[in-house]
Amino acid sequence: QEAGAKAEPDPKPKATGTKREEFLAQTVHSRRAGASVPFGELTLEDVRGRADELRAAVGFGPTARVAPVARAWRELTMAMEQGQVGTVKELDPEALSEIAPRLWVVPPGGSLL
Questions:
Q1: Can you tell me the distance from the alpha carbon of 8 to that of 26, in angstroms, rounded to the nearest whole number?
Q2: Is the Cβ–Cβ distance between 34 and 68 less than 8 Å?
Q3: E-assigned strands of 14-80?
Q4: How far apart are the first and last CA of the chain?
Q5: Is residue 24 a contact partner of residue 76, using CB atoms and an 8 Å limit?
Q6: If you average pLDDT over residues 16-44, what whole number do you get?
């Protein structure tokens, strides 16, 4: 990088430090619990269920946009299995930081509104 040149912002911010804690605290619906729970409290069963649900929703036209999100939830499932963890918050921070932006727990732009 040239002297005086501005650094380009990271297009895919990672869930690290305080941002990681905020990300893990975001509430998402858990079918198992029948209520909204913090993302970090989701179990492997919850994550696997969400991945399956999203995969089933993928189709043609507008629903094709769900495919990358469904794939990210499947990657989260595999990372949890490989790490042998019971909840998302127990997952290796580096592994989670790679997957987190693609899960849409916090939508691009940072808000549902």
A1: 27
A2: no
A3: 27-30, 35-38
A4: 37
A5: no
A6: 88
Q: Are 71 and 57 in contact (CB under 8 A)?
A: no
| Structure tokens, 64 | 């094709």
Contact indicator for 112, 29 with CB cutoff of 8 Å: no
Q: Locate the DSSP E strands across 3-88.
A: 27-30, 35-38
Predicted pLDDT at 86: 97
Largest CA distance in the chain: 55
In this structure, are residues 36 and 50 in contact, taking their beta carbons and an 8 Å threshold? Answer: no
Residue 59 has pLDDT above 50, yes or no: yes
Rounded Cα gap, residues 45 and 70, in angstroms: 15
CA 12 vs CA 64, 101, 113: distances in Å: 21, 6, 20
Sorted by where each begins, the domain ranges of the chain are: 17-102
Residues written for the chain: 113
Rounded to an integer, what distance in angstroms lies between the CA atom of residue 39 and that of residue 20?
11
Above 60 in pLDDT, residue 113? Answer: no
pLDDT tier at 60, thresholds 50, 70, 90: confident
